């Protein structure tokens, strides 16, 4: 892979990067996030797993403020989440997000997809932004696709472009919400490998995934959610070999 720095500050910087304290969120009568306390250290890779509907996506969406919260607090790098305007755009750039559906701009080329935000939000000049975009596209193995449009790429390639686009903004933390679950099986590994490499490079990552191989090899910690709560937190080894809660035991018996 091409040498290009992805983390805004080196791995040498330490301390808590993402801190959720007593976060609650409702959708009408549904209490979708209940008293969530979660602290993610710089450079840490946390895998979030749990049954469908347990609040994993909502949790991710609150961290880059695609959803508001009803009570509690969320801070990124010591700062509370901004409410609107330029501050919010900068926060979204600090928190890179990769969704299940690739969400690329369909009418922009791959290169434009990875260049735009750098120019608009990070105020880079176009040439520098394109240079970084090309380096990142090379890094995720799609450098040869730079002039194509998203629809001309495979799902695995599109998802790698989506990762490059998020990285282009020099995020402090990357959120991945089931990044491989919409992919054909033969494309899953090419995306997981890019994520593995990012983890090795020291990127702080929150990853919602049911890919247990990835969790075992890349995660520092597994967070298990059910019914809007964090039910269990453990090292991957501990969690997979010796889950403590009945909910986790039941969940693992269904997916492993
Ligand atoms: P997960 O990602 O773990 O499957 P989600 O966070 O997507 O769970 O959803 C948690 C619960 O919140 C589900 O019951 C879902 O139907 C509900 N939900 C999610 N988004 C909304 C929304 N925008 N409006 C109403 N209910 C929602
Ligand atoms: Mg989800």
Protein architecture, described:
This protein is of the alpha/beta class and 256 residues long. It has a single domain (14-252), classed as P-loop containing nucleotide triphosphate hydrolases (Rossmann fold). Helices cover 38% and strands 25% of the residues. The protein contains 9 helices and 10 strands. It has helices at residues 56-63, 85-94, 110-120, 126-139, 155-168, 185-200, 212-218, 236-241, 246-255; strands at residues 16-27, 30-41, 45-49, 71-76, 79-80, 95-98, 173-177, 204-208, 221-226, 229-234. The strands form 2 sheets. The chain has a 6-stranded mixed beta sheet, sandwiched between helices. Strands 2-1-4-5 form a 4-stranded antiparallel beta sheet, with helices on one face. α3 crosses α4 (126-139) and α3 (110-120) packs parallel to α5. It is globular. It starts with 15 loop residues before the first strand and ends with a helix. Magnesium ion binds at residues 56-57, 177-178. It is a peripheral membrane protein. It catalyses: a polar amino acid(out) + ATP + H2O = a polar amino acid(in) + ADP + phosphate + H(+). It is found in: Cell membrane. This is ABC-type polar-amino-acid transporter.
**Which series of helices and strands comes N to C?**
EEEHEEHEHHHEHEHEEHH
pLDDT averaged over residues = 92
What hetero molecules are bound to the protein chains? adenosine-5'-diphosphate, magnesium ion
Strand line-up of the largest beta sheet? 6-7-8-3-9-10
InterPro entries: AAA+_ATPase (IPR003593), ABC_ATPase_HisP-typ (IPR030679), ABC_transporter-like_ATP-bd (IPR003439), ABC_transporter-like_CS (IPR017871), MetN_ABC_transporter-like (IPR050086), P-loop_NTPase (IPR027417)
Pfam families: ABC_tran
Catalytic activity: a polar amino acid(out) + ATP + H2O = a polar amino acid(in) + ADP + phosphate + H(+)
Keywords: Amino-acid transport, ATP-binding, Cell membrane, Hydrolase, Membrane, Nucleotide-binding, Transport
């Amino acid at each position: 892979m091409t040498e290009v720095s992805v983390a805004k500050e080196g791995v040498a910087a330490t301390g808590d990067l993402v801190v959720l304290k007593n976060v609650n969120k409702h959708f009408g009568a549904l209490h979708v996030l209940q008293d969530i306390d979660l602290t993610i250290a710089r450079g840490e890779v946390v895998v979030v797993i749990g049954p469908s509907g347990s609040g994993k996506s909502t949790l991710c969406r609150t961290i880059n403020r695609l959803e508001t919260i009803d009570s509690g607090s969320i801070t990124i790098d010591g700062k509370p989440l901004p409410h609107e305007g330029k501050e919010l755009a900068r926060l979204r750039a600090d928190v890179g997000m990769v969704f299940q559906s690739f969400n690329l701009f369909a009418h922009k080329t791959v290169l434009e997809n990875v260049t735009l935000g750098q120019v608009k939000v990070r105020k880079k000049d176009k040439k520098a932004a394109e240079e970084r975009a090309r380096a990142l596209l090379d890094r995720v193995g799609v450098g040869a696709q730079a002039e194509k449009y998203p629809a001309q790429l495979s799902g695995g390639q599109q998802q790698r472009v989506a990762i490059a686009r998020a990285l282009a903004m020099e995020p402090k933390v990357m959120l991945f919400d089931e990044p491989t679950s919409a992919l054909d099986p033969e494309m899953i590994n090419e995306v997981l490998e890019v994520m593995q490499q990012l983890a090795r490079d020291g990127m702080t990552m929150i990853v919602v995934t049911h890919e247990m191989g990835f969790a075992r090899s890349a995660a520092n910690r597994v967070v298990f959610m059910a019914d809007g709560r964090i039910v269990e937190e453990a090292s991957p080894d501990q969690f997979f070999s010796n889950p403590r809660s009945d909910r986790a035991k039941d969940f693992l018996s269904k997916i492993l």
